[in-house]
């Protein structure tokens, strides 16, 4: 129920723009509170638009200083202007120019959309609808223009002036009456682009520079701009950028197209980063790293985000989106590309597991709750709320599935076709998929349901073995629960990669049907379920095999298959597929944990299971890859367990069950874990590479289990590690281990950590987050105190996310506390943030997305908390949208 009368934007209402803007000349005079923007637009009627239509330019809070049409003042009533709109009822039906001068206040811009300040620097964020906060425009992605941008500023305040494209001119200006020495720079971007890719930066920043030689021999000047003094921390980002540029040439045949590529890191940023043409702007969290301040996970994120934004140059910029419903066209595809890049840079097997963990943690709950939406949505109230795990991560999974389905070769031909055919255009998901249909000769219309239907399908598998006939019969069935607005669903096209595992490994696959499609299935091991159910009979199977199903996580589905525990143990030991081998261990653990939760709920103490502990012992002794072994011994998270249980969730029972299993493994594997811990002690110089990171990961996973199994010995190891750690990975892992036990040692370690890192906001964020995720009863009061800490600020999104966000999404027991205090706190913060930064407020509020799965008491409290927001008269569109859908 919506309390206002807002109407959603609908995909089916899409109309081509009535006017086009071929070029934009901007003249921006930077000023802390009154920046002046003079824009000259070359406008013409769109031959594909409606003749004589009114011209309505978007604005958002703009103050107009002057307007001219074809350089002359318009007659009275020709232009109707408000802060939100500039309208010409009868615009010329020929090319004409429109000049508009506006004034904006960058310092007062707390939404961090449009032109704002981060520290003393000026920067912009225009995606999706921020350009209208700078000047009036057809602020929609299907209007592509060539931009020339002249920037002017005080030389002292902003010696650096950057915009999209190539620098064409720069120089000094006569000192004004105010005595301020001013200068200017002119940037020109020859590639037509939508307004959301516009960017400018002005400020006093340090920088590092390098160059990249493209495969056709062009030299690209690379620059990364950071706060003075932080230049050395940008080295890994630069290295990642060069590797990404080289990789896109070999993996996708994509070469960079401008003479310069600049990255600017700012500390106040709503999202991770932004792919503005030739001038990416980053949350500094995804740029700055040193071994002493960044964990291995941070390094991996920097590599991935740098690559992601760079890859957008082709998937997003050269080919952009027709409208915001097509957001996954650039985001899903670019995530797919950055996953492929990271897999090539690191261990593909380990990377796949990490990606699936992340998908299940962030996207599955979205798909299972009130905020579920299509990968290609059909309506929205607030587009900012659609930068979601569904658009990004599920969007990437769908493309990955497409590749599994049609094969790598057809996939690669489809990509080439897409780049060739749609370069320079604003495309749709249909355009994209049509390239693969053409390249593979396959009909992909049913596959398209992945874009049109929300929700995670359930794949149920059942099998039987007939020893006398030597047949193994597999029955597959898919079903999908209703999601908001979708009661009934058509079957999905699900590629099911599978294998049969005998005592010594994979068995050859043989089925009975003999046609091209089944030959292809046998050959690839990928069986396609495109109907509600399907039965496959495997022949010549000598002994009962263990079924290894959904290899590589070949489709984003939930799997229900009652494998015997003996089969799971066989898969853990023998499965040739590294993903299903890991999954077998997770499934086993999940089963034990689900049972333990039920036992705890019934007042019984959970039974121990030695077979699982033994299987993990063999993993530790036999696994050659520490990073992979670390994944194998890391139990499902509390949120994973909650998802597996699905309903009537009691977070305290889940916490107790997981702690109990960690303790049992820590005790049972004690000697193995000690051996691993000692064997993997740091040796030699630091390297951020995957092998070195893998050793640290396994050693710290061992430490975590040891602390659960043998609290005193574990704490002693952790204390020693905390005192001597020379990497942030080891230091924060030790602190986390010490923090498991309340008391003096923990508080002293927290103090020490803060003293060591007080000067580094990104490290202090880790300190906030770690405390926000403590399972103790007094965590909430600790967090409330921390909101008053001098290092905390509600104005900075990274601080808010690390303290309040970590609490709401990373602390299952305390956020969902039985007395409702966690809900109340988050609601209070959302309401206080909303007037200042609605995007960050709405993002926080989406932490309630699984409230309906809670047990009745907590569920009622969560609903009451959401209703307290819903009844407010004044809410941003962002928060209004999330709260109404959450309750819907
Ligand atoms: N396109 C950016 C990316 O690479 C995300 C920008 C989203 N910004 C926003 N305010 N919603 O993923
Ligand atoms: Zn992106």
Description:
With 888 residues, the protein is α+β, with helices and mostly antiparallel strands. The chain folds into five domains: 1-204, tricorn interacting facor f3 domain (Immunoglobulin-like, Sandwich); 319-452, Neutral Protease, domain 2 (Orthogonal Bundle); 461-555, Aminopeptidase N, middle-beta domain (Immunoglobulin-like, Sandwich), CATH 2.60.40.1840; 563-709, Peptidase M1, alanyl aminopeptidase, C-terminal domain (Zincin-like fold, Alpha Horseshoe), CATH 1.25.50.10; 761-887, Zincin-like fold. The strands form eight sheets. The protein has a seven-stranded mixed sheet with strand order 5-8-3-2-11-14-13, with no helix packed on it. A five-stranded mixed sheet has the order 16-17-18-20-19, covered by helices on one side. Helix 3 (327-345) packs antiparallel against helix 4 (348-368), helix 16 (670-679) runs antiparallel to helix 17 and helix 20 (744-757) packs antiparallel against helix 21 (761-772). It starts with 8 loop residues before the first strand and ends with a helix. Bound molecules: arginine and zinc ion. Residues 308, 312, 331, 334 line the site of zinc ion. Residues 25-197 form the Aminopeptidase N-like N-terminal domain.
- Span from first to last CA? 6 Å
CATH names the topology of the largest domain as Immunoglobulin-like
Shape: globular
Number of domains: 5
Catalogue the unreliable spans.
none
In CATH terms, the superfamily of the largest domain is tricorn interacting facor f3 domain
Spatial order of the strands forming the largest sheet: 5-8-3-2-11-14-13
Question: Which ligands appear in the coordinates?
Answer: arginine, zinc ion
Question: What is the arithmetic mean of pLDDT?
Answer: 97
Number of strands: 31
Number of helices: 28
- How can the largest sheet be summarized? 7 strands, mixed
Note the beta-strand portion. Answer: 15-25%
Under CATH at level 1, the class of the largest domain stands as: Mainly Beta
Helical percent range? 40-55%
Query: How many whole angstroms does the radius of gyration measure?
Result: 28 Å
Which CATH-level-2 architecture of the largest domain?
Answer: Sandwich
- Counting helices, strands and paired strands, the structural category is alpha+beta
């Amino acid at each position: 129920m919506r309390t206002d009368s807002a109407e959603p934007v609908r995909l089916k209402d899409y109309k081509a723009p009535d006017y086009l803007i071929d070029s934009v000349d901007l003249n921006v005079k930077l000023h802390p509170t009154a920046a002046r923007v003079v824009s000259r637009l070359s406008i013409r009627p769109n031959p594909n638009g409606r003749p004589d239509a009114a011209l309505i330019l978007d604005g958002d809070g703009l103050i107009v200083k002057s307007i001219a049409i074809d350089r002359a003042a318009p007659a009275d009533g020709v232009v109707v202007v408000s802060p939100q709109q500039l309208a010409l009822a009868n615009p010329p039906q020929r090319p004409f120019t429109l000049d508009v001068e506006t004034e904006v206040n960058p310092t007062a811009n707390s939404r961090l959309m449009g032109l704002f300040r981060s520290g003393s620097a000026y920067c912009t964020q225009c995606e999706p609808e921020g350009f209208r906060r700078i000047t009036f425009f057809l602020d929609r992605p299907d209007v592509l223009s060539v931009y020339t941008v002249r920037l002017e500023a005080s030389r002292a305040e902003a010696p650096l002036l950057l915009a999209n494209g190539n620098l064409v001119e720069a120089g000094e200006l006569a000192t004004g009456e105010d005595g301020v020495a001013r200068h200017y720079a002119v940037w020109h971007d020859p590639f037509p682009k939508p307004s959301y890719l516009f960017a400018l930066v002005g400020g006093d920043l340090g920088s590092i520079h390098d160059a990249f030689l493209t495969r056709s021999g062009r030299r690209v000047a690379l620059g990364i701009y950071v706060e003075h003094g932080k230049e050395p921390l940008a080295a890994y980002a630069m290295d990642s950028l060069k590797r990404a540029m080289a990789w896109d040439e070999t993996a996708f045949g994509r070469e960079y197209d401008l003479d310069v590529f600049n990255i600017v890191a700012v500390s106040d940023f709503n999202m991770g980063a932004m792919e503005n043409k030739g001038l990416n702007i980053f949350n500094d969290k995804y740029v700055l790293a040193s071994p002493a301040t960044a964990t291995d996970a941070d390094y991996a994120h920097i590599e991935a985000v740098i690559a992601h934004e760079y890859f957008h140059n082709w998937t997003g910029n050269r080919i952009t989106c027709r409208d915001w419903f097509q957001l996954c066209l650039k985001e899903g595809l670019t995530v797919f590309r950055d996953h492929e890049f990271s897999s090539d840079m690191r261990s593909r097997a380990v990377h796949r597991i990490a990606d699936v963990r992340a998908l299940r943690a962030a996207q599955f709950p979205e798909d299972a709750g009130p905020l579920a939406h299509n990968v290609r949505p059909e309506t929205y109230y607030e587009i900012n709320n659609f930068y979601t795990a569904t658009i990004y991560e599920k969007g990437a999974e769908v493309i990955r599935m497409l590749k599994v389905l049609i094969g790598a070769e057809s996939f690669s031909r489809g990509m080439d076709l897409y780049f060739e055919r749609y370069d320079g255009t604003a495309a749709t998901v249909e355009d994209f998929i049509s390239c693969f249909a053409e390249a593979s000769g396959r009909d992909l219309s049913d596959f398209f349901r992945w874009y049109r239907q929300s929700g995670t399908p359930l794949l149920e598998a059942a099998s039987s073995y007939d020893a006398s006939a030597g047949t193994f019969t597999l029955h597959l069935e898919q079903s999908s629960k209703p999601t908001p607005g979708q009661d009934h669903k058509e079957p999905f096209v699900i590629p099911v990669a599978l294998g049969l595992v005998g005592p010594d490994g994979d068995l050859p696959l043989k089925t009975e049907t003999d046609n091209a499609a089944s030959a292809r299935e046998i050959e690839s091991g990928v069986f396609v379920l495109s109907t509600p159910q399907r039965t496959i009979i495997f022949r010549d199977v000598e002994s009962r095999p263990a079924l290894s199903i959904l290899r590589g996580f070949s489709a984003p589905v939930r799997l229900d298959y009652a494998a015997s525990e003996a089969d799971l143990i066989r898969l853990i030991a023998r499965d040739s597929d590294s993903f299903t081998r890991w999954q077998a261990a997770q499934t086993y653990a999940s089963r034990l944990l689900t049972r333990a939760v039920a036992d705890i709920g019934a007042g019984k103490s959970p039974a121990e299971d030695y077979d699982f502990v033994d299987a993990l012992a063999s993993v530790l002794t036999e696994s050659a890859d520490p990073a992979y072994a670390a994944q194998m011994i890391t139990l499902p998270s509390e949120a994973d367990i909650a998802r597996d249980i699905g309903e009537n969730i009691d977070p305290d029972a889940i916490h107790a069950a997981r702690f109990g299993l960690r303790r049992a493994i820590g005790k049972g594997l004690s000697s193995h874990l000690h051996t691993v811990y000692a064997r993997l002690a740091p040796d030699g110089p630091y390297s951020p590479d995957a092998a070195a990171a893998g050793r640290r990961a396994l050693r710290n996973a061992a430490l975590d289990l040891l602390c659960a199994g043998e609290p005193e010995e574990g704490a002693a190891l952790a204390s020693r590690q905390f005192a001597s750690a020379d990497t942030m990975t080891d230091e924060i892992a030790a602190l986390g281990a010490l923090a498991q036990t309340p008391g003096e040692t923990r508080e002293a370690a927290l103090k020490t950590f803060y003293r060591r890192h007080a000067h580094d906001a990104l490290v202090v964020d880790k300190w906030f987050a770690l405390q926000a995720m403590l399972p103790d009863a007094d965590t909430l009061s600790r967090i409330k105190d921390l909101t008053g800490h001098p290092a905390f600020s509600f104005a900075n999104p990274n601080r808010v996310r690390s303290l309040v966000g970590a609490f709401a999404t990373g602390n299952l027991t305390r956020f969902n506390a039985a007395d409702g205090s966690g809900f109340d706190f988050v609601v209070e913060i959302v309401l206080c943030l909303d007037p200042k930064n609605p995007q960050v407020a709405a993002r926080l509020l989406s932490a309630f997305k699984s409230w309906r799965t809670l047990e009745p008491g907590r569920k009622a409290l969560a609903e009451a908390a959401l209703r307290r927001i819903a009844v407010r008269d004044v809410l941003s569109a962002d928060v209004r949208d999330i709260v109404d859908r959450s309750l819907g």
